[in-house]
Amino acid sequence: MSEEEIWCKHFLDSLSIFEVYRDFAGKTILDFGTGGGFPGLPLKIVAGSCYLTLLDGTKKKIAALKSIVRSLGLKNVEFLSYRLEDKNMEKYFFSFDLIVCRSVRITPLLRNVLCCLLKPQGKIFLYKAQQIEDVLLFKRYQIHELKLDILGTRKIIEIDIQDS
Prior knowledge:
The chain is an alpha/beta fold. The chain has helices at 3-15, 40-46, 59-72, 108-117, and strands spanning 28-32, 51-55, 77-80, 96-102, 118-128, 140-148, 152-160. A seven-stranded mixed sheet has the order 3-2-1-4-5-7-6. Helix 1 packs across helix 2 (40-46). The termini are far apart.
């Protein structure tokens, strides 16, 4: 993959959420299934005043992300090396204003935990390409279809958990 493809596929895609939502200042954000830090790290770089938590079940990924965050000098970034369904996540219930999730299939169990992690009035943003059937697990959602020249078509699903 070329450098340009990496920038488009990962960084610009992570920032495509700004086409539909911009109120990140001071918000507590969970990047669920962060992997290599996407979309969380690009969001943190652009919206520096947010409080970011990167969650991934792979300890090696979290260790690498700690090194990256340290080298970038980013502040207010927390790291969790758990699976979302781990009992340890209960201490984070009602902690986040926003949850972002890129290319992860949501199951009924994951849906329940995600909803518990959000503060009242919180929102979930799912980055999706084609497969969006898991969105039907939620009652209130809006599909934002983005057609960006450099990225192609991308769907960002905005989920309001009230009554979900």
